[in-house]
């Protein structure tokens, strides 16, 4: 069964979340779908027995980090997963500097890290995709080897833009990521794809054999449409 991550980003207020939960109630098997809502609504999903993750964790476990949320606090709310290094966090919050610390904290606390990696448009156009991925993988895995880790390959130029790589490119990059990690870290990791996945392209994406699932943003925000999308993911 494919892993499906729903990244709500900084969307929704309380009423929207209640409505969302109402719409999806009893609608699908829940053991392969992970919701990543704002921290404020993690408990709403956990209480209803959905798998839930945070979109981020603090790089420190506790203490003087104003405005951050500790993994220990998030665990109390019910997370089993956390995104680490989403490109929006890398862009706005310098998360490149904290990836290794966050990976370590997640694994230490038995939370599954969904490590987001991906190249910028400039890197893609200059044939630097693999170099960028190697660099991001090495920083994250150097001291944090675990076969629990999930890799989310998300080309930055594809997030929220409607543009996606061809199936041939994705097949090649996913196999590159898996082989590179296997050869250098002796672990086999699942790799999911994220970037403008939607109802129009999902059937084509489903043809990619080495893909273990999807991390989806915009197309999860309408619960009815998300249900349709889930139905098409095989
Ligand atoms: C994301 O931000 O992780 C993402 C995949 O977004 P979208 O599906 O909207 O491109």
């Amino acid at each position: 069964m494919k892993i499906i991550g729903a990244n709500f980003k900084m969307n929704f207020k309380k009423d929207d979340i209640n409505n969302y939960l109402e719409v999806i109630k009893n609608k699908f098997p829940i053991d392969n779908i992970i919701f990543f809502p704002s921290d404020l609504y993690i408990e709403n999903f956990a209480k209803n027995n959905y798998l839930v993750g945070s979109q981020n964790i603090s790089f420190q476990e506790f203490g003087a980090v104003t405005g951050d949320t500790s993994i220990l606090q998030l665990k109390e709310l019910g997370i089993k997963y956390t995104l680490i290094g989403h490109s929006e966090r890398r862009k706005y919050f310098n998360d490149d500097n904290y990836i290794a610390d966050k990976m370590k904290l997640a694994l230490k606390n038995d939370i599954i890290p969904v490590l987001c990696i991906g190249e910028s448009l400039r890197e893609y156009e200059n044939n630097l995709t693999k170099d960028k991925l190697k660099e991001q993988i090495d920083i994250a895995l150097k001291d944090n080897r675990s076969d629990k880790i999930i890799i989310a390959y998300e080309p930055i130029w594809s997030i929220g833009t409607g543009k996606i790589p061809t199936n041939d490119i994705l097949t090649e990059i996913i196999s590159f990521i898996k082989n590179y990690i296997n050869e250098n870290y002796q672990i086999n990791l699942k790799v999911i794809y994220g970037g403008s996945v939607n109802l129009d392209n999902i059937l084509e994406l489903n043809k990619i054999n080495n893909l273990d699932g999807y991390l989806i943003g915009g197309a999860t925000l309408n619960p009815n449409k998300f249900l349709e999308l889930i139905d098409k993911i095989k």
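Residues 3-232 form a domain with the TIM Barrel fold (CATH 3.20.20.70). The chain has a mean pLDDT of 97.
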